[in-house]
Amino acid sequence: MTHLKLKISLAAIIFSAAVGYLAFAGAQKGWVYTLGVDQFLQNSEQQSQRVRLCGIVAEEPLEIHKAQLTAKFALKGQQAQLPVTYKGVIPDMFKAGCEVIIEGKRDPAGTFQADLLMTKCASKYEEVPKDHPKVETSAKADAGGQP
Prior knowledge:
With 147 residues, the chain is an alpha/beta fold. The protein has helices at residues 3-30, 37-42, 139-142, and strands spanning 33-36, 51-65, 70-76, 81-87, 99-106, 112-120. The protein is built from 3 helices and 6 strands. It is elongated and about 75 Å long. Residues 135-143 have low confidence and may be disordered.
């Protein structure tokens, strides 16, 4: 092998290793566990990690301040609930009793600091019963029947 081919091969190996390391480090930082509230509270290892939780928004306490982009609520599991503070855009479907997915980290005081809030709406995606009256959604219907 000539001296030039050796240099090119060595540069290609170093470049590949660097790209591989960056891809692995980025993917590892992006991995987030998804847990239920009860599961999260029982596992002390994940208390200090960034996690994704799913549960139901409790009736009390519930404070929604859309203008300030904040919400304070309790996330209910089967047996326990967790106080949550969220900062960000609040979805329109967010209310007491709805199922949500939040992402963030628990602070030393025990409050979960969420920076991602998504609502789930199962009824929106359920199949329409066969005896349900059909709703016309074509462009012709939207235009008042005019072509």
